[in-house]
Design brief:
The protein is 46% helix and 12% strand. It is of the alpha/beta class. It has a nine-stranded mixed sheet with strand order 1-9-2-8-7-3-6-4-5, sandwiched between helices. A seven-stranded mixed sheet has the order 11-10-18-15-12-14-13, sandwiched between helices. It has a five-stranded antiparallel sheet with strand order 22-21-20-19-23, covered by helices on one side. Strand 21 and strand 22 form a beta hairpin. Helix 27 runs parallel beside helix 28. The longest helix has 32 residues. The protein is globular, with a radius of gyration of 32 Å.
């Protein structure tokens, strides 16, 4: 059963007009309800809070106290976590346990601290993979993966569990980690009450219907009301203008709201007056020295007016009383550059008393950092920026530094934080205003527009409840800014929740072990992904029926009195397809000719690239391997010090070797000084003014279509067909084209319908086939002689491996790939299964000891295992295995061997924060290896590797 409650207006108050004065009977009933609430657990809970509850919070808490599961969807900052905290209160009052799950460790740490303050350290625990505190407490905060692992392992800690709070449950849409949320929801026992806390999504009712299907009675409470109204503004040349016209209510702008005419006029004038201006220099008004104009990308850019410098944005916010503020910049380098600009410009937002308090807190929090690491971590610049009230916040920072920023910002000591979008997830850092520098971000492969859902999530932090009467969302004017598009982002506050659930190898062996294959398929059919797919089939089937009716009409319209026009139209399509195939074959031949110019290159060859996006000169630093039809992908260094991998698409008509340059032995592209020196030698070699000479495209011979016998035969058949002479031939042909186009769409739609029905179970079956082929599952007979699928001994320890590359890790352990490695070697080898480089032009990684060392041999065996699994997955139409990346091998090996942080990061473009984050992920996997490896020696080595990694900056913890 699903009950629903939707709140769209502001919270109810006790002030009523005379026209709505309640009757005596209504006042008596209301008094009875208040008295019942006061006597309930909710009444006792309210006394602990010290502030009144909103109506949606009361509705959700009352449903929870009645024994119902609850889904609460409300904007950021609305106070939905109060419902989760009430679940904790109910658990303690009834003598049961409560688990409070979060998507990230930082949020777990924050919630742990909140609950300890209320209930005491003896009643609250924390489990985050690398931190275990009081794990058997009645209230335990944990990451969602920890709870999933408990469920599969049948942990005794689950005994007595009464409530599970899933904070940020909309995270189940995450492509990589989202499936864990659905696994937990599906596998929790029926007697556990589930509290799901979500951002405002447009399909909350659909999600609630699914929860009711798998969990039973569920109350859906949706509140679209922001407790603090949000104003929408644009910052143009230091002036803050409202986005909407004066008569528009910014809290409810409606569809296509009118734009502020002053804003439109100012944006147009700005673009007219400042086209294509260059960089700032010392003679420019407002230039503030190094860091004031361009560091971190803050200078002029092509295609429009000059963007407002970041320090000027801070000045404008300070002038208009909009601090504290979070400024979202979708770049780590941009965040650091913004801080440097503010420091260079002399920005200071704190009083002397605040500066002293900031320094005291920073020194206390960072006291555990060894003095020799402070310079490597940039501690002094970090501390100086904080004392001025300015900070950066991004995933590349040391966790300890990020947590210090969060603490100081929440205390009101830091006034401006330049952050990437990772800050938008869960961490409690409310601000008076949120600034967005751009409405475009890099998603890892392309520049993409910010979606309405992302805009809502990011700007949702603006407005501190109980402090601000209004929050402010500010977009900095930049080239290409369209105020109408911005209004569309700001007014569309809801976005749909889409499941990312998919079966994994670990999930398969655990399900088969617990409930058998048939029951496992039934369980997976209850996933939200399948629920959405099945609902979508209804609409698709209706669309397919419409297609079928239209096809009948088109068929009647193309009837020809001279013959079968469908047959004639098919001949025309065959001719068009053949001509297209011949054209494609010619293009492929030309591409192969270009690819041949990339073969046989040596390190040091100087190349001339005549045309294309990489035109100019470059020196080969890695010839690349066999790239198949497209040839090798050599890595080159250009004259402007850029490291690039060349492909056929980059080199136009091909490259030409014009000389040779000695590349220093031991050259690594990761060292900026090495790149600079080699690029200088390259410029000297080719000459400063020597540009590429254009190479004309080879002239082809006669078109292949002219000599193609098959094409000629088709054309003869077409001319001989009776319909060819029909006077209405082209009219019939137009209907035939429509019929063919719609028929193709119809066939694809029917295939989609077939693919969606039971799609999750079909993937599970293919996963099981792979596991059976490898011997992790086997077909046996039960006591009744029926054929059943069972988990083998190898499969039993695969059940304990939860890494993203779970099957590859299991294969490496089973084949003994890691058996001869010491602790640093094992840590380095495991890093290849975990690490994902942020760039694809890092050059060839260094292997400690060389390719013939024990580590080198193990890595080679890992690559072979990966290749075999990739082929096996391709044969079974499965796509789960992730590529290997050896970019962290040297750094992890050095750290596990006891080298200093300076020695580990020297010559690398890896930040300290990234290094710590990846090391902790390696530790998580090593912990699993220490439990699941088939040989005791490897288990012992894994434990030693964990201890070898867990020191210095990697060991720092916030709790």
């Amino acid at each position: 059963m699903v009950s629903r409650s939707r709140k769209t207006g502001p919270p109810s108050t006790d002030t009523r007009s005379s026209e709505t004065e309640p009757s005596p009977a209504e006042r008596y009933a209301a008094a009875r309800r208040r008295a019942e609430v006061d006597r309930s657990e909710l009444g006792q809970f309210r006394e602990l809070l010290g502030f009144p509850l909103d109506e949606f919070q009361i509705d959700a808490c009352q449903a929870l106290e009645r024994g119902s599961g609850v889904l609460v969807a409300a904007p950021t900052g609305a106070g939905k976590t109060v419902v989760g905290e009430f679940a904790v209160h109910l658990a303690l009052a009834s003598g049961r346990k409560a688990f409070y799950t979060t998507p990230i460790k930082a949020l777990s740490n924050q919630k742990y601290s909140d609950l300890v303050r209320r209930y005491g350290a003896d009643r609250v625990g924390l489990l985050t993979g690398d931190t275990t505190i009081n794990g058997e407490a009645p209230v335990v905060v944990m990451t969602t993966e920890v709870l999933r692992n408990m469920l599969y392992a049948g942990s005794t800690t689950l005994q007595g569990l009464g409530f599970v709070v899933m904070d940020e449950v909309h995270y189940l849409a995450d492509r990589f980690r989202g499936p864990v949320w659905e696994e937990v929801i599906i596998h929790l026992t029926d007697d556990v009450q589930l509290v799901s806390l979500s951002a405002t999504v447009s399909n909350a009712e659909e999600f609630g219907d699914w929860l009711a299907t798998v969990r039973g009675d569920t109350t859906v409470v949706v509140s679209e009301h922001r407790p603090v109204p949000l104003g929408q503004h644009v910052l143009v040349r230091g002036d803050l203008l409202d986005l909407y016209a004066g008569h528009v209510d910014p809290t409810d702008p409606g569809v296509d709201p009118p734009i502020n005419p002053d804003l439109t006029h100012l944006l147009r004038r700005s673009n007219r007056e400042e086209p294509g201006q260059g960089r700032r220099g010392p003679g420019d008004r407002g230039y503030r020295g190094r860091g004031g104009a361009r560091p971190g990308g803050g200078g002029a850019r092509p295609g429009g007016g000059r963007p407002t410098p970041r320090f000027a944005v801070v000045d404008a916010l300070d002038r208009d009383g909009l601090l504290p503020a979070i400024v979202f910049i979708f770049s780590r380098a941009g965040c650091q550059g913004a801080v440097q600009q503010c420091l260079a410009a002399g920005v200071r937002l704190t009083s002397p008393a605040e500066q002293s308090e900031i320094r005291r807190i920073v020194e206390e929090r960072c006291a555990a950092v060894p003095p020799e690491d402070l310079d490597v971590l940039g501690y002094w610049e970090f501390s100086d920026a904080l004392s001025r009230g300015v900070a950066a916040h991004h995933a590349g920072m040391l966790p300890l530094f990020k947590e210090t920023v969060e603490d100081l910002f929440s205390r009101g000591l830091v006034k401006v934080v330049f952050a990437t979008e990772t800050l938008a997830l869960g961490i409690n850092m409310p601000a008076r205003s949120v600034v967005m520098e751009k409405l475009v971000k890099w998603d890892g492969s392309n520049h993409v527009d910010v979606t309405p859902g992302e805009y809502t999530q990011l700007t949702g932090r603006a407005g501190r409840r109980g402090i601000d009467t209004e929050g402010h969302a500010v977009v900095v004017a930049h080239p290409g800014l369209d105020p109408v598009q911005l209004a569309g982002l700001a007014s569309k506050r809801l976005y749909p929740l889409r499941s990312s659930f998919r079966p994994t190898y670990n999930m398969a062996v655990n399900l088969v072990a617990q409930v058998g294959r048939d029951r496992a398929r039934d369980v997976l059919e209850t996933s939200f992904a399948q629920f959405q797919a099945d609902r979508g089939v209804v609409g698709l089937a209706r669309q397919a029926q419409g297609h079928a009716e239209a096809l009948e009409g088109y068929a009647r319209a193309m009837v020809c009195h001279q013959g079968d026009f469908a047959e004639y139209a098919a001949l025309r399509r065959e001719i068009a397809a053949r001509e297209k195939d011949l054209t494609r074959a010619e293009a492929q031949a030309r591409r192969a000719e270009v690819a041949r110019t990339l073969e046989g290159l040596r390190v040091g060859d100087v190349l001339e690239i005549p045309v294309g996006r990489r035109s100019g000169h470059a020196v080969v630093i890695d010839p690349g391997g066999d790239g198949g039809f497209d040839g090798p992908r050599p890595t080159v260094l250009t004259v402007d010090r850029q490291v690039r991998k060349l492909t056929v698409a980059d080199v136009g008509t091909g490259v030409r070797t014009v000389g040779f340059l000695r590349v220093p032995k031991g050259f690594t592209a990761r060292v900026p000084a090495a790149r600079r020196d080699l690029a200088a030698a390259l410029r000297s070699s080719v000459g400063a003014d020597r540009g590429p000479t254009r190479k004309d495209r080879p002239k082809g011979g006669q078109c292949a279509a002219a000599d193609d016998a098959e094409l000629a035969a088709l054309r003869r058949r077409l001319r001989a067909h009776p319909c060819h002479s029909c006077p209405d031939r082209e009219e019939h042909a137009r209907w035939a084209e429509r019929w063919a186009r719609l028929a193709g769409e119809h066939d694809a739609l029917v295939a989609r319908i077939a693919g969606r029905t039971g799609s999750i179970a079909a993937v599970f079956d293919r996963i099981c086939d792979v596991l059976q082929r490898l011997g992790y599952l086997e077909q046996t007979s039960d006591d009744a002689g029926r054929s059943v699928l069972q988990v083998t001994d190898d499969g039993r320890w695969l059940r304990r491996l939860y890494a993203e590359n779970d099957l590859l890790l299991a294969e490496c352990l089973r084949r003994g790939v890691f058996d001869e490695l010491d602790a640093p070697g094992l840590a380095a080898a495991v890093s290849t299964l975990v690490y994902r480089s942020r760039r694809d032009d890092q050059g060839e990684p260094r292997i400690p000891g060389g390719p013939n060392s024990r580590l080198g041999v193990a890595l080679d065996a890992t690559v072979r295992a990966w290749s075999e699994l990739d082929d096996l997955e391709t044969a079974h139409k499965v796509e789960t295995i992730q590529p290997l990346d050896a970019g962290l091998v040297e750094a992890v090996h050095r750290w596990a061997a006891g080298r200093s942080l300076d020695a580990v990061l020297k010559g690398s473009e890896l930040s300290a924060g990234d290094f710590v984050r990846w090391c902790k992920q390696v530790i998580d996997v090593l912990d699993q290896v220490s439990q699941a490896a088939p040989h005791q020696r490897v288990r012992d080595t894994a434990r030693q590797a964990v201890e070898a990694l867990r020191h210095g900056v990697v060991a720092y913890s916030s709790v």
